[in-house]
Design goal:
Number of strands: 21
Number of helices: 13
CATH superfamily of the largest domain: FAD/NAD(P)-binding domain
CATH topology of the largest domain: FAD/NAD(P)-binding domain
Strand content: 15-25%
Amino acid sequence: MAFQPTTDLPETCDVLVVGAGAAGLMAALSARGVLDRDGNRRDPGGPQVVIVNNEARIGLKILVSGGGRCNVTNEAVAERDFTTDAPHLLRGLLRAFPAGSARAFFEQRGVPLYAEPQGKLFPQSDKARNVLDALLNEVERAGIPLVTPAEVTELQPGERWLAKFNDGRECRARRVVLATGGKSLPKTGSYGLGYDLLGALGHTVEKPLPALTPLLLADEGPLHGLSGLTTPAVLSLVPQGTPPEQVCGAKYKPPARAGGSLLVTHKGASGPAALDVSGACARALDESERVQLLGDFWSLPLPDGLWAEHLYLPKPPGACLTADTVPRPPTFDAFMRQAGALLENREQSVGRALGARLPRSLLDNLLRAKSIDPSTLIKQLDQLSLKRVHLALTQADVQLAGVEGFNKAEVTTGGVLLGELDRNTLQSKKHPGLYVCGEVANVTGRLGGFNFQWAWTSGFAAGQGARA
């Protein structure tokens, strides 16, 4: 029989968990004491825990994630995979409930996982429903009531926290765990409620913006007219006017850089590479920063490059290279060495020669954007022209115009500052007894299961804190 929530809200409880998404469900189980830090099952016997959710439907974001398959976590998760205001706090949290613990949790509960290239872990059934059912079955086994619909509109601190609801009901709790999610995919019930609650309590909330969302590109850009094209690429977000020599410098760290598959769309670009830089793009544009998004379409297709093993797969990996392995755009000298064999026949056109490496439609657009006629013979290219070819392929301005909004975003970047929460339990430093986890905190993972892992990790930490 499917899990059945209740409409009966108790007047008091030990721990009130606000939000029944991935983080909230894990926090409730952790607070109830039914799992250890390795994901192993324990007998319930902890505090009285109650979950409330604003939507009558439970776990909608879990069900739609990963195309309905749910990318549970990743084989390798580290602090470098996240953007936050306090990255030094992530290492300890991730170690307390790592990806291996999340995997053990689900596999011990009848949901075996398998890995895709770049480490994405999915249920073997390819059904997100199995992931949600495993969580809800544990909630039921632990005797935790899940009350829906029940939207919290105000939290008042005290020896017992007072939670007020939109229908006039009230509940007093010794501890409150806020797991209300962000603003992405509002159709799943993510309205940004937690940001308002935390702001009213005096917390600093970095403006929520869409992340892991498609990019919007101007029609004048070199990708216009190539809708449907999929190609590996490295995207770098840089301040306007950054010298090309600096962009490819070994010590230069751009505001954002991602290397993986790129899908050109009617409006702009999607795919892992575009999604992984979208949060930084949204932030820069929102703050009116003068930036450029540069595309390196040369480095990843190299036959001996970091993407070589993925070049001939039927489907490219659904995640990018790790931050420490994404190649920077090559210098002009390095480019000429890499392209040397292709440019040996000087009687050949530059388009035909380099078309052996890149899709011809893409190559022609990139060259023309730098005023290079693809039919130009190689012998007709002087040093200055060759340098324009180099920049056309390795630092093409793709003409960033914006990002898709929350309706298309997989996650939200921004939220309550991680630095305002305890480094071990995610308890508010301003209001003891209040814990924060999941997307409402200012922690955003890249594509590949990292945001779900943050949900499991932060939910476990907040639940342990509330339990103590």
